[in-house]
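Apologies for my clumsy wording, but can you show me some protein sequence, whichever is easiest, together with the matching structure tokens, please?
=====
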Amino acid sequence: MLYHTYVKCRFDIRVDLKKFGIAIEMDNELTIRIRRLYAAIDGIEESDLRAFKGKIVATEKHIEFYQDFRAGLTDEELSNRVHSLIYNIASLYDHLRKWADNNGYNKNKVEIAVNNSEALKIIIDLANNDRHGYPPRDGGRSRKSPKLVDLDRVLQLTTGSEPGSGVAVTFGRDGTPMIAGSGSAKVIITGDVIDKDGNRIGDLSEIAVTAVEAWEQLLQNFRSTA
């Protein structure tokens, strides 16, 4: 494998703890849970491309290199990192309900947020699959029996928000990836999510982004009623 690129997609998940924590007075346990989510995100992405030098192969006629962004990670290590993220997103369901109930908010809003987010339902199903086995009863919360396949660690290129933005990757003489253009790049662990019939539902990284955004929207909702 040389490298894969995911163009015009992103994997940048951050909830502003200061904005939400001060406004709605998160307790220490919930804050720790959100910080654990950040740590899980950091475990599957790396923006310092100097850590991913290609292997140089020199001959009398030319120089070539082989690039594998796994950097020695096994399938099991990739799976552990991804499932840490999945668990941390999914587990906020119970912790947000407990926090809301203890702080005078309507905990049913947490259930409503999940019901209104296909991404959250899929992430919760993936967590339950790993905990209880596959397939889930009645297709799980999503009713799609989602399953994670083809995990890999790949290079993701992201264009900027301005019109005409572009991004490209080249490699230095020592094999170090170098980014050109107004976009950005990082190495991420991701995979495909498929249903019980093998049909592709989507990319795990994009589903995870959408799921965390749904939690963020819920926190904003709680904040507006504080």
User: Anything to note?
Assistant: The longest strand covers residues 147-158. The radius of gyration is 20 Å. The chain has one domain: 17-224.
